[in-house]
Amino acid sequence: MGELSTVTDAVIDLARRLNAAHDGGPLIESVPENLTPADMAAVYAMQDVVIGLLGPVGGWKVMAGGQGEPTCAPIPANRYFDNGAGIDSTRHRFIFPEVEVAVKLGSDLPGDADAAQVEAAIASLHPVLEMIGNPFVDRDSIHANVRLGDLQSNGAVVVGPVFDPAIKAELATLPVSLLLDGVETKSTATGASWDAIVEAITWLARHAAARGLPLTAGQVIITGSRALAPHGTSKHVEGKMGDWGSVTAEMGY
């Protein structure tokens, strides 16, 4: 299995094909073994090539509250959408939405930021829908490390309105529902706590800076799926956070 130790023309071509497939281009049938990342270092090297072809970074995804070291991916600015946005699900190959909590940075974060600096840099919290995209003919046949290298399958992020800051105390037991055309499809009342989110972003600040992509003011960081399900041909997707607020997107086909 390839280590992706150098950026070859073949790696750049794969990144271009992945990006194109997320935007209506031909789906990818297979990925050669020599282009499959062998480990997380190679996964992140692949991400760097993919994001480098997409333009500026608008934010990140990081898994807060999990076991061991988090995993992450940068998200290009042109994949962020406002609440209620209409998005072409067929063109962008969305396969399911995830309801998540996001933070928006109000100031830059250095790589050596501590938890107090991270908390001070967070300007607001938001409900978001992350749309997972599938640029492959058969997603299950593609090695997981390729999907991780493909910016962890990010297709889009729809950012909802600002939460009341008091939600921080409720995040670990926050009631979350995913509604498709008004019908509740998934629900949960567990997720990453505020402390776990701050811890994950503290780790991310170091990681991102080491990759030459430091966290900056205005970026939106999503913190891990709380509810997800295939949306099929549903037109109206809503992520509801109890009485705290919701985020919606309109799917086109």
Explain how this protein is built.
By secondary structure, this protein is an alpha+beta fold. The protein has one domain (56-252): Fumarylacetoacetase-like, C-terminal domain (Fumarylacetoacetate hydrolase, domain 2). It is built from six helices and 13 strands. The chain has helices spanning 9-21, 40-52, 89-92, 115-121, 144-149, 194-210, and strands at 57-62, 72-76, 80-82, 86-88, 94-105, 122-133, 154-159, 176-180, 183-188, 220-222, 227-228, 236-240, 246-252. Strands 1, 2, 3, 5, 6, 7, 10 and 11 form an eight-stranded mixed beta sheet that branches. Strands 4-13-12-8-9 form a five-stranded mixed beta sheet. The longest helix is centred in the last third of the chain and has 17 residues, at 194-210. It is globular and about 50 Å long. The model is unreliable at 1-5 (pLDDT under 50).
Describe the structure in brief.
The chain is an alpha+beta fold and 253 residues long. It is 24% helix and 30% strand.
